[in-house]
Amino acid sequence: MKIPKILLICLICLSCKSQTKKINGISFVASSDKITEKHISPVVKVSANYVALMPFGFIKDLASPTIIHNTNRQWFGETENGIIQYGEEFKKRNIKLMIKPHIWVWKGEFTGNIAMKSEENWKVLEDSYEDFILTYAKTAQKLKVDIFCIGTELEQFVKNRPDFWGELIKEIRKIYTGKLTYAANWDEYKRVSFWNDLDYIGIDAYFPLSDKKTPTIADFEKGWQIHKNEIQKVRKKVNKPVLFTEYGYRSVDFTGKEPWNSDRIIEKVNHQNQKNAMQAIYNQFWKEDWFAGGFIWKWFHKHQKVGGKNNNRFTPQNKPTEALIKKLYAK
């Protein structure tokens, strides 16, 4: 049967839309070293098409207004020169980039609680943060990075200073021409006021899914339903695609109960939990046309020396989940 030309064009367009490639990303941890092909090859082998590169700024405590960044006292990969070197190496292998600046608070306190005690200090923080973030917006433009993340888990800062964030986005747009997102914590994203000004709704997706010691894939998928519905409400309201700026699970018992928990305590290794949780999140989201993809937390450059059978941390490296990621991302 001869298909009319206009219908054929429509079918081709629909086919292209349905086959839009997801962001199959890895959060690539900054180190003290430069990277080479040997550090990138394992990322290529798991079929990742994106990496998130993460420069760091540091503050003394939750009420401190000054961000220290891009100094020779930091690890190389946390600095501007390091991001450029890492980015250029990944681009040689046709892996796309997201630059996602982080702040580290002394003693590891949660960045979402950063809040100033005076208007004067809020102003200092705003100036310091703008300097920090525009440094890496310029770097992102120089590298022709596909996505730039304007902040990571800064709920109180975002909540208390909405005008600052609106103006900051405008300043970033003057410098950087790619796509923008913000990495909201899993319990923060519904209250972010500036999604309309960005290109992706960014979520660090550590949602609680199950209280069971070893949930099945079905258990994890059931746990996703309430959260998926809430994500959909926000997505429909602002009409933007959703990007999991981080997602991942530890290889421990009860990994679905508090997936954000990274306490360094001795817990029983449970690789099946990590694998089941990863399969479930893929099943629930990668089939959705409104879902852009995500970045696994996290991946270290010295592949052969991390992860493994006795490791209960977030990395999937040298664990059963690594082989699963390769299979899923290859799709």
Describe the sheet with the most strands.
Answer: 8 strands, parallel, barrel
Note poorly predicted spans.
Answer: 5-19
Q: Structural class, please?
A: alpha/beta
Shape from CA axes? globular
- What is the count of β-strands? 11
Radius of gyration over C-alpha positions, nearest whole angstrom: 20 Å
Q: Determine the N-to-C terminus distance.
A: 32 Å
What is the mean predicted local confidence, pLDDT? Answer: 94
Describe the structure.
The protein is built from 9 helices and 11 strands. It has 331 residues and is α/β, with parallel strands linked by helices. 39% of the residues lie in helices and 17% in strands. It starts with a helix and ends with a helix. The protein is globular and about 50 Å long. Helix 2 links the parallel strand 1 and strand 2 (50-53). It has an 8-stranded parallel β-barrel with strand order 1-2-5-7-8-9-10-11.
Kindly list the characteristics that best describe this protein.
331 residues; alpha/beta; three-stranded mixed β-sheet; 39% helix
